[in-house]
Design brief:
The protein is α/β, with parallel strands linked by helices. It contains two helices and 21 strands. Belongs to the dynactin subunits 5/6 family. Dynactin subunit 6 subfamily.
Amino acid sequence: MTSTSRDSRRPSSIPAAKPPCQIHPSAVIAEKAVLVGTHQVTIGPNTILHPYAKIRAENGPVMIGANSAIYENAIVGTSIDNSNLEQAVIIGDYVNIESGAVVEAKSVGDGSVIDVNAVVGGGTVLGRWCRVGPLERVKDGEVLEDFTVVFGDGRKRIDSTARDGAEVRRAREIGQEKAVELVKKLVVDGKAKWVE
């Protein structure tokens, strides 16, 4: 049996850099959400960052639009470990980034969904109303056109229902607005520690 010194198990006592933040008053940033980096973080109206969601603005600014949700253990932005990837990360309106997903994309279009534990690589551009399925991976620098669905070992198809149905897209937006309103009642807002 090996022993581990007590000091080697302690987390670093050096706090991560706190980024400059511009957070809309109607956004909710959970107490345990994490924002790190030296670049600007902008969060739009009615957007929710769940507990343990992480925004990394270490290699460029991160902008998140309105009515979006970043769930538990999701990571948005590029880390200092990926220093060759200096870029802004832009997340559109009505975007869901589910639990455990990692998004280093250059941009994610309005209405898109990044499902549980999916990875969207650096420099990637996702069009509007795209969906990356659970555990799927979109390679660095890939460009997906509007309404693309990534599923089953990287296969792709176009979501013709969303593409051809403005009423379907609007129904999804309304559903997102209602979900955001509900979550705003459940998640304690801790944005005060990020704004000055």
